[in-house]
Amino acid sequence: MIQADQEAKKAATTIEVDPNLNWNDIRLRVLYMYQLLLQHTDAEHQLTTNQIRNIMEKEHGISMHRTTVPGDIEMLKAAGFDVHARRSRQNKYYLENSNFELPELKILIDAAESSKFITEKKSRLLVEKLLKLTSEASAAKLKRNLHTSGRVRSANEKGYYIVDAINEAINAGKQISFYYTDFDGRKKQFLRNEGKPYIVSPYTMIWNGDYYYLVGWNHEQEETRTYRVDRILKTPDILNDNALPVPEDFDVARYTREVFRMYDNEEPQEVTLLCANEVMKGVLDKFGMDITVKKADPEHFRTKVKVCTSPTFYSWVFQWGGKVRIEGPEEAVTEYREMARKALNY
Q1: Total-model pTM
Q2: Beta-carbon contacts of residue 22 (< 8 Å; ≥ 6 apart)
């Protein structure tokens, strides 16, 4: 894969020019010099004057005198490029790419490869672009060791542009209109809201559980609602109507915690949980470090969290096999028991 990415990178960075152009034009030569340094060098991989001359001759048919190379290097440095020269018997040159370090690029590549929101095609193209941010030698070090086989990926190729349109509308303070989809029991996609578009004043977008979510005011239902971006059918229309302002008391962090994993539309309520000590990490992962916990007995602790009591929340409780118990309110206890009973009798 790395070899293919490097070939794509080389093809993408090659400048095609009219062969009849005057190669003595210093502007073209310096552009090729920058391309050469970007593609072949970094702090660990430097090129001598003669190596640069040979590559320029081989790849671009440009003959350079040995005294021309340092002059072009100085021109690149004067233009602000971070080109370094190591003076020795054979001077060596390299381009320092200070935008990203290799560990940073590795993290970005892993994120692009593993994200469920990004389609496989878009993920591959994004990785190719990330590899262009470093030299070929350094790109080889970015070989992925992340296993993502079988991971369910989004099929919505328009995801990039949907996110961009929503962000543009938020910055412009405009309402948006979009069609929202779901699937029936035959895996057939259909439009929600009886096929009518939703009109929403967008507040913000949230990244959660590998998906983007749009939070905004639904003008038809007159309430704050949450929408998974990859289920928006196509790029939203940005309307001329001004969006309603975000309420002053709207706290996106609190909203994210309360609307548990953002699948639910009910009003959040306070729930008391009795938990075994061994599940503390799982509770903190879901509700954050700022929750208050109290010792119930040597093996258990008790905490109160504000969530939407819904199948999503109840399924999280169920996965702990009795090590997390709902103590109140009584309505939540009853709903959880009823959900478990229906599952057993299905």
Answers
A1: 0.54
A2: 28
